[in-house]
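Most newcomers find our protein records easier to grasp once they have seen one. To make this concrete, we reproduce a full record directly below:

…
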Amino acid sequence: MRCVFIVMTALFTTWVANTNGQEVFKFSGELRMRAEVRDNADFNSDRLDGTVQVFQRLRFAAAREFEHGLKVFVQLQDSRLWGEEGSSLNALNNVDLHQAYLQIDKPAALPFDIRLGRQPLSFGSERLLGKYDWHNIGRAFNALNVQWGSAQQQLNFWLAQVRDHTAPTVARNQEFAGAYFTSQRLLPFTLEAYWLLLYDARNFESIANPATPGRQDEPSETLDVHTLGLRLSRARDRGLQFDFEGAYQFGGRGFQSIRAYGLALEASYTLASKWRPSLRAGYVLGSGDEQVDDNRSETFSNLFPNAHGFLGAMDYASWSNISAPYAGLSFVPKEKLAFGIDYYLLALHNDHDAWYRAGGFNIGTPQEFYRKAVAGAGKRLGHEIDVHLDYLYRERLDLKLGLSKFFVGEFIEKTGGLRADDSVWGYFALEVKF
């Protein structure tokens, strides 16, 4: 029934768009398919956990601009894994609303714009707040977003509802609010400053430990994380570029107070010669907890990030409890062809804290980490080598190819039982935008 409604809506809007030859609606779309091969995701070759998966995503959007600065944008999305239907005759209800918002520019001649509805929130480096477009669904928020400023300087305020306790399948509210300032008045530098607040009204003790029964909300048992951050960057087509970002977190997490920090540094240099070779090097630090059962939480949380590629394409690490230098070399032999190789050395910042997944630490559920800390296991997780290629084959057809290998380190060797084997991953993607 939902698919029929969508088709009828699309036909109706197409008819309206062509009435009297006027272009009323603007349509856009995307079709993406990505095959991924991964072996030894658990770093144990005895378990034969190799996988071959094909992810497919279709997006279709319609936009309409009215008089007096009123805009409407709607984007539908079908996201699926090949074979999940279980039969060539089965259908899945995978079509959903990815974006749907109303935007009012300069309401009542006031100096700001308002965007209300389901929308992506993406700012800065996206280490803390990004669209996560690599994911087959992608991240979107139900939010109110207000923006002041001009092309050179902007200030955004937003309030997003992540969870609503009145929904049948949701327990307690989770809200996400923030302010993000961006200035390019000091060209070629970009300065950014931000405040982010994540509040979760669920009982932290019952979330982190399922054996603990949930109770009514109590201020001492909920989560509120404040993040203050600063970013300074310089981006150019050639020559020296750099990116520095630092963030500090405070607040409360159950009975614990929060005191955590994160740093990300990167410098690169691009030559203007043939093939435009570019060399980059960087370092990422996310604090870890010295003692997990005391009254202070020191694990840095990367909140709602673009959780792909920052610490290796295999996504075996996040900005939580991490110490990771890295380097990369890339080339552009033709205008439509680019390839490169990257190296990452991954280690825990604190060996008393866990090894967290790419999404990072947030509430403290078991799904957030690969392995807990083990006394005497050390800090070194391992190192990763990535090779990647991007080729714009036709005007709208983009081909992407990548191959990665993760070499296990001391921590995995001492926490994985009898075996500790390297992991391999590769992908091939096709993307068409129209």
In short: The chain is about 5% helix and 50% strand. Confidence is low (pLDDT under 50) at residues 17-21. The first strand starts at residue 25 and ends at 39.
